[in-house]
Design brief:
This protein is an alpha/beta fold and 241 residues long. It has helices at 37-47, 61-68, 89-94, 97-100, 117-126, 183-189, 200-209, 229-239, and strands at 6-11, 31-32, 35-36, 52-57, 77-82, 105-109, 112-114, 132-137, 145-149, 155-160, 171-179, 215-218, 223-225. The longest helix has 11 residues, at 37-47.
Amino acid sequence: MNAVTSAVLLAAGRGARLGPLTQDFPKAMLEVGGQPMLHRIIGGLANAGVVRFTIVSGHAAESLEQATGDGRRWGVHIRYVRQAVLDGTARALSLARSDVGDSSFFVGWGDIVVDAANYGRVIAAAGPTGASLAVNEVDDPHAGAAVEVDDDWAVTRIVEKPPKGTSNTRWNNAGLSVLPPEIWGFVAALQPSSRGEYELPGAIAAFIAAGGRIRAVPIAGPWFDAGTPESLAAARLHFGG
């Protein structure tokens, strides 16, 4: 039986890089392959055994919540929490703490689009440690977070937005993970980044630096961070509209 049955989906952001597409519209509800990105993610996770969802909404929250509903169409339960102040993904995640309790849980961004089979792979990889992190291969992870792994695919270090050309890894944080309950202490202790935000990758990096065990899982197939017009168009091309 799948031990990971809860998921937190982060869908509060304004999507500023998408310009007029998200001026009055939630980014996660933009369509890829004939359905909103958020709905693609919920369906993929439901097929992987997740039955309880907490969706963190924010920008244009009401339209996202009304269009997505209570989860009945996927055979799951959905609860919403709103991030009134958009002060980072770690603060967004903390709004869902009471929902996931003391168990490992899946967490993902509402604008990361991958083939649905990856959800089950990320959950299965959590296995004995209760933690996993999806990674995608790039030429240089300077725009995201460099993820260093050992020969057994254990994550040894995460460096957020390293200077271009300085990384000794081609693996980038793909924005899908299973996190253990121990992460909450690192979320609580997190300091704001240079952007003034409390960013979840920083808490994950601190957990690993303190000896936490997370298994890396390479994404199978293409990976799209659909927060830019170019990546959104590429995702639509791949998934057919």
